[in-house]
């Protein structure tokens, strides 16, 4: 394998010293970029875009060609797993993801297969290899999956939900059915992430978009416990290098200490917590990734710079910080403002890494 030319992202995740704070953006390949919209139009739609290894590679590299980002993220979606389980994923314009078949009963859960990445998700494995080879060591490649709880939410609700009525009814009324579903998902996600690692992903992130909607006790039982099982089952070293794991629970600020106890290397933070405070809470146990409000990118470049400076100052000196947004970049952001954000992180962070 080609040697990595820029490994500051992997170093920061492992709390090793870096020259400047590494930065990437969740959803960095997406609709705010005109070149992404052009590729999607060429592919026909989002599903065709992500299911073609060549197109997936093309759009993964687009933000890297524009900005000096410190990591690439596989272009795919968390809902590839429910799709491979037979639910029939499709996207309704303006309405987000939908499934042809929705999980409603204990029998539906019992009939669900555990997915095998090579047999059922070969297009993702191919995309990882294609992207890794095209990157040629420029920056590390991040693989990802959804958390079991977040995947279950889409599978039971049938799409994006406002009130989570069906999934919460299942959780409270039939906890054993809920656990059976989460167990199959945890097995599928573990095998999927290990497949991505074997094919070239150099770090992995688990996206728990909806764990933050649970009660404090339910989060530990229905979301965190399954993410811990995944972390326990992951390949942690490949090609002679550690493969860091990042856990991101949106609205997960309440549970940082418990998340830090899972064995993950880093925690992703949304913008609602103060990153300095989070650092004091987790101590030396994990690195932190985040956490600028994506809406700050609607402001003028000098105001974006001020927000970046504030977050860097809050984190303070030393290792263990990967800069990111607190959630995905939105389609309405001016690409020039994303550039100003990335530049500000690199320029303003050098002072926090000088070794005495
Ligand atoms: O970060 C990246 O650049 C990698 C690609 C990526 C996508 N989805 C591409 C995508 C990643 C990491 C995801 C994860 C994902 N997908 C999550 C977890 C992260 C989060 O945002 O909380 C979730 C919940 C999904 C499910 C999903 N996929 C939704 C709700 C939507 C529709 C929302 C929207 O923005 O329209 C998608 C579609 C999707 N996935 C798009 C992209 C770029 C937009 C599709 C398009 O081009 O129209």
TrEMBL record:
Catalytic function, reaction form: uroporphyrinogen III + 4 H(+) = coproporphyrinogen III + 4 CO2
GO MF annotations, alphabetized: uroporphyrinogen decarboxylase activity
Pathway: Porphyrin-containing compound metabolism; protoporphyrin-IX biosynthesis; coproporphyrinogen-III from 5-aminolevulinate: step 4/4
Transition state stabilizer (site feature) positions: 77
EC number in record: 4.1.1.37
Name listed for the protein in its UniProt record: Uroporphyrinogen decarboxylase
Purpose of the protein: Catalyzes the decarboxylation of four acetate groups of uroporphyrinogen-III to yield coproporphyrinogen-III.
Residues reported in the UniProt entry to bind substrate: 27-31, 77, 154, 209, 327
Family: Belongs to the uroporphyrinogen decarboxylase family.
Keyword terms of this UniProt record: Cytoplasm, Decarboxylase, Lyase, Porphyrin biosynthesis
């Amino acid at each position: 394998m080609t040697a990595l030319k820029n490994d500051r992202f992997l170093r920061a995740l492992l709390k090793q010293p870096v020259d400047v704070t590494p930065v990437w953006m969740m959803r960095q390949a997406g609709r705010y970029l005109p070149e992404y919209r052009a590729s999607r139009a060429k592919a026909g739609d989002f599903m065709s875009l992500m299911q073609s290894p060549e197109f997936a590679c093309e759009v993964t590299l687009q933000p890297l060609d524009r900005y000096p980002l410190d990591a690439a993220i596989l272009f795919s979606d968390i809902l590839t797993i429910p799709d491979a389980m037979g639910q029939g994923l499709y996207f309704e314009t303006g309405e987000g993801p939908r499934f042809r078949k929705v999980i409603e009963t204990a029998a539906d859960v019992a009939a669900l297969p555990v997915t095998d990445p090579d047999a059922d998700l070969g297009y993702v494995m191919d995309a990882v290899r294609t992207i890794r080879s095209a990157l040629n060591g420029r920056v590390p490649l991040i693989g990802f999956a959804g958390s079991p709880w977040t995947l279950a939410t889409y599978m039971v609700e049938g799409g994006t939900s406002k009130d989570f009525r069906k999934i919460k009814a299942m959780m409270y009324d039939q906890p054993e059915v809920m656990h059976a579903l989460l167990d199959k998902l945890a097995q599928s996600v573990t095998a999927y992430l290990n497949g991505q690692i074997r094919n070239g992903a150099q770090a992995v992130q688990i996206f728990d978009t909806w764990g933050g909607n649970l009660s404090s006790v339910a989060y530990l039982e229905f979301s965190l416990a399954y993410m811990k099982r995944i972390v326990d089952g992951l390949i942690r070293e490949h090609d002679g290098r550690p493969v860091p794991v990042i856990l991101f629970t949106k609205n997960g600020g309440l549970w940082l200490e418990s998340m830090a106890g899972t064995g993950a290397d880093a925690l992703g933070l949304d913008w609602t917590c103060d990153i300095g405070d989070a650092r004091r809470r987790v101590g030396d146990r994990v690195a932190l990734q985040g956490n600028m409000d994506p809406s700050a990118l609607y402001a003028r470049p000098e105001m974006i710079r001020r927000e970046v400076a504030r977050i860097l100052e809050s984190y303070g000196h030393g290792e263990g910080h990967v800069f990111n947004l607190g959630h995905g970049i939105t389609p309405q952001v001016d690409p020039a403002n994303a550039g100003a954000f990335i530049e500000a992180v690199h320029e303003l962070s050098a002072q926090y890494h000088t070794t005495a």
